[in-house]
Amino acid sequence: MICDVVFDLPLHQSFAYAIPSAMTLHPGQRVWARLRGRPLIGVVIALRDGDEARLHSIERPVESVPILSNAALELGRWSAEESLSSLGSTLLALLPPPARGSRTEVVAPPPEHVAGHASPPELWVGAGREARLAQQLRGQSGSALVVAPDRERAARWAATLDAPRLDSGAPDAARRAAWFAASRGRARIVVGTRSAVLTPLPPPATLVLLDEHDPAHKPPGAPRMHARDLLIRRATLAGSRLLMLSATPSVESWWRADRQRAIRPCLGTEPWPQIITADTRRILRNHPITLPLTRTIEDMTRSGRRVALIVTRRSAALICTECGELFRCPECAVPLYVSRPQKALACRLCARVEPLPEHCPSCGGHRLFPFGWDAERVEAAVRKRFPKLSVSRADPRAQVLIGTPAILRALGPGTLGAVGVVTLDNLLTVPDFRGGERALELVWAAAETVGRGGRVIIQTLHPEHYAIQAVQQQDLRTFYEQEIKLRAELRYPPFSRLCLISVKSRSQSEAQARLGDVAQALRGITGLTVYPPAPFGSVVARSARRQVVIKGPLGLPRLIAPVLRPFLEQRRRGAGVVEVEMDPVS
DNA sequence: AGCACGCCGACT
DNA sequence: GTCGGCGTGCTC
User: Fold this and answer.
1) Which residues touch strand B (CB under 7 A)?
2) Is the minimum distance from the CB of A2 to strand C below 7 Å?
3) Domain range for residue A453?
4) Could you point out which of A73, A102, A159, A414 has its C-alpha 20 to 30 Å from the C-alpha of A386?
């Protein structure tokens, strides 16, 4: 007998091995096998008869039984095709770490999935959604998999539900134990992140996606797909119930759930805070705090309540005030940020650090200043204005707390008197079609955190924006109807698919040339829109990374796969490495 | 991806 | 004369 094995390699092919006569293997089983002499873990995807004379043999199985069911293999195959990545890298990213040591781990076989009755994925919105989920999961008798966007939230939910963890925040042995406990029905509920979406569960299984809108559900790297899309597919194939929770769902999910009559409002603590907008015209240039926000800080701290100030920019960029030049990373083309402790300019993508320049390389000017209100600049300004208050970016007990939107998660509902959004316009004016969605998410989260009797102050140049109005009226539908109309007119998702194609190379000209080859190859396909690369400032002397976004129909991956496959397979170092990211989230 | 093979520049 | 740069090709 011969088995076909896939490895965690960027290769769209499997490798054939002979199965020693004393060994029994099944599809879905993990094995150790030698490839060019070095031992690698692979997954058996098929068994067949054939000439085994000139083949190497499988060394040994990692577990005594398949770790993946046929349904899970099928889901992996679909995901690899949809994301234009290899089956091996997709599957191996979705398995628990193997046991250490040189002996095959003996475990009970997985249950065979019985396809149940497919019901549409449900979207749970409203302040009571999480309480209701905990109640539902504690009360039901079937198995459940809860997928969180990150390890912190996985840890929190594992504690809440007293369930084992599958994510990388838990020790390897515990993760593996949780996987097999779930598969044998010994753990009724398990909690993980995207890497856990193939965990076998005895039917009837409930699948749960927490904070559905969160871009952390699609971190970079394999399996190169959003946890939501994997779970939707799994629920469909296995006939499982899928619950997706979010205060502010993605437009895509709202649109789908609304058409399937699957939006479930969960009521919670109702009285909503006052949502007040404050015009930032001319103010933000010199000072980050408008009069309404100043008054709110005074009122709240006087009555013993705390205030959080939210900055959407993590750090300031450096700009030449004479010619307007923004300093960018020559490698990544993103703006460099000013690192004050290091007195340097740093890149968030490639960790490049360079000393603060003396003058502008574009015009020679010497008037270089930080641009944008980051937490540090806001903190300094607030301390100056309110010298008697405790102001902090780290201490949650401070009277005025300053941080990114993530700090709202750490603060429980009702612990604040007010939230001030220093400026919403970073989100509304960036050339990203998800800006409205991100703005809604932030303002709604601020309102949920403040709750009854509090105040949310939004500093913005766009006080009439429908995202803000929707929060003021506590009415999600107001937002989504406008946003969906806009997306339909401009043919953005969910009415189309996007794909980001990038080339990494040692020089800009090489990257450009290679990207040109890719674009040329795509030219023959009808129904594609290729957006030209964003023009970069002249400070970018040599960018080693070029990218284009293409837009196409819902079957986009299948449309472009045959054309892109040769580029993805021959990874020519010098000429540039081509990477493809379907459905990018940022 | 990782590793071996292979063909041209600056060193003992 | 060699050491070593990285471009090319292959892995059952």
Assistant:
1) A 9-11, 36, 38, 571, 577
2) no
3) 274-315+371-488
4) A414
Strand B: which nucleotides have any atom within 7 A of a protein Cβ? 1-3
User: Residue A235 corresponds to which amino acid?
Assistant: A
Mark whether A149 and A233 lie in a shared domain: yes
CA of A324 to C1' of C12 (A): 58
CB A185 within 8 A of CB A143: yes
- Per the structure, the residue whose CA is closest to nucleotide B1 at C1' is A9
CA/C1' separation A541–C2 (Å):
38
CATH number at residue A526: 3.30.70.600
pTM above 0.85, yes or no: yes
* A574 nearest nucleotide via C1' and CA: C7
Same domain, A186 and A207: yes
Instruction: Give A534 CA → C4 C1' in Å.
Output: 40
Res A77 pLDDT > 80 = yes
Distance CA A66 to C1' C8 in A: 38
Strand C nucleotides within 7 Å of a protein CB: 6-12
What angle, 0 to 180 degrees and rounded to 10, lies between the N-to-C axes of helices A227-238 and A70-82? 140
CB A244 within 8 A of CB A124: yes
Segment A306-355, tens digit of pLDDT: 999 999 877 788 888 888 888 887 766 778 888 877 788 888 766 678 88
Q: How many domains does chain A have?
A: 4
Nucleotide nearest to A34 (CA to C1'): C12
Angstrom CA distances, A569 to A11, A545, A560, stand at: 7, 19, 14
Domain match, A473 and A526 both: no
What CATH code is carried by the domain that includes residue A34? 3.40.1440.60
What would the pLDDT profile of A268-316 be if each residue is shown by its tens digit?
Answer: 767 899 999 999 887 767 789 999 999 999 999 999 999 999 998 777 8
Local structure of residue A284 (DSSP, 8 states): H
Are A465 and A427 in contact, with CB atoms under 8 Å apart?
no
| DSSP for residue A215 | G
Residue A531 pLDDT class (50, 70, 90 cuts): confident
More confident residue, A541 or A444: A444
Question: What whole-number percentage of chain A has pLDDT above 70?
Answer: 95
What's the Å distance between residue A315 CA and nucleotide C12 C1'?
51
The two structure tokens encoding residue A389? 């208050």
pLDDT at A573: 66
Q: Tell me the pLDDT band of A534, cut-offs 50, 70 and 90.
A: low
